[in-house]
């Protein structure tokens, strides 16, 4: 399998902070969308900043399109499109002015595509950025990220705070971006329903550590939550589940193969699960 992004044993500590990225490893296959989820402060932005080389990792290797990202490889950065939650475009500029700046910065800037995306997303090209709504600014940032020949998009909370209609438009664009099987996306988001719609894989991070990377369809269709009584739970072998969480008189148990579990335990109810529930059980439950 070819990978657009490979992160291996990445570590990063901040002076004066207890937080530490702890041997973070995961990979984004070419042509796919990887959802990156974790609670506030789990290390998503730190990881993405290290990938972008805007933050210097303490150790670890980051490969983009199979090549190691170093300070010198500015050419690789040209192929990475970025949309962050806090966009910091110069506020006095309009989208059209921004286009003339990007034309000089990016070797592969496609002005026609940028105008097409502005029209499609209904972003006014002659309004100053400071007068655009937050949704408009995020759409503008996305149009820019998609217009300089990027093959890998890094999206850090790019859809947070946007209404469902705008989010749907953005998700459609992301799906179209990866359609040719060459482009890939790493997207961090707290809106896990968005990731359920578009992601091919999900990586969970907790306290600076990767706790699970899995195919999304396996998570949604093969994983499950067994709703056990205390007695039923006590009868289970630890090898049969990933995590458990007591809730009143019930114990929720995360299992990785609900069909095989149900065959073994016909008396236990097993529900489908969601990315949110899996995260809760992995983070709050007992392993
Ligand atoms: N410059 C810094 N100096 C010290 N600590 C920092 C710095 N930047 C981030 N941190 C800490 O590192 C931890 C991880 O932060 P990070 O922004 O990577 O988390 P996140 O998963 O992106 O969170 P969120 O979902 O809230 O955006 C947090 O505890 C944060 O306070």
UniProtKB/TrEMBL annotation:
**So which residues are the signal peptide here?**
none
Which GO molecular function, any one, fits this protein according to its record? ATP binding
Keyword vocabulary terms for this entry: ATP-binding, Nucleotide-binding, Transport
**Superkingdom classification of source:** Bacteria
Q: Does the keyword Nucleotide-binding apply?
A: yes
Database matches in Pfam families: ABC_tran (PF00005)
Q: Where is the ABC transporter domain?
A: 5-232
User: What name does this protein carry?
Assistant: ABC transporter
Native organism: Insulibacter thermoxylanivorax
């Amino acid at each position: 399998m070819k990978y657009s992004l490979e992160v291996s044993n990445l570590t990063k500590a901040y002076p004066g902070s207890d937080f530490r990225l702890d041997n973070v490893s995961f990979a984004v296959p070419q042509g796919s969308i990887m959802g990156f989820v974790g609670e506030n402060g789990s290390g998503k932005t730190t990881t993405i900043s290290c990938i972008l080389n805007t933050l210097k990792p303490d150790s670890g290797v980051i490969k983009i399109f199979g090549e190691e990202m170093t300070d010198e490889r500015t050419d690789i950065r040209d192929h990475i499109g970025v949309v962050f939650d806090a966009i910091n475009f110069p506020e006095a500029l309009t989208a059209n002015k921004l286009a003339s700046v990007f034309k000089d910065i990016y070797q592969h800037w496609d002005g026609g595509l940028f105008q097409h995306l502005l029209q499609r997303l209904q972003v006014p090209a002659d309004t100053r950025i400071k007068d655009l709504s937050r949704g408009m600014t995020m759409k503008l940032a996305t149009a820019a990220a998609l217009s300089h020949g990027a093959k890998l998009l890094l999206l850090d909370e790019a859809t947070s705070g946007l209404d469902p209609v705008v989010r749907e438009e953005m998700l459609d664009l992301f799906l179209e971006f990866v359609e040719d099987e060459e482009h890939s996306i790493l997207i961090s988001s707290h809106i896990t329903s968005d990731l359920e719609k578009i992601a091919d894989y999900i990586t969970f991070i907790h306290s600076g550590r990767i706790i699970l990377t899995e195919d999304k369809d396996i998570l949604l269709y093969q994983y499950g939550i067994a709703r056990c009584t205390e007695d039923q739970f006590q009868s289970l072998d630890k090898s049969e589940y990933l995590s458990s969480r007591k809730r009143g008189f019930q114990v929720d148990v995360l299992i990785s193969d609900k069909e095989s579990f149900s065959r073994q335990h016909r008396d236990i109810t097993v529900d489908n699960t969601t990315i949110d529930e899996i995260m809760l059980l992995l983070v709050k439950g007992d392993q």
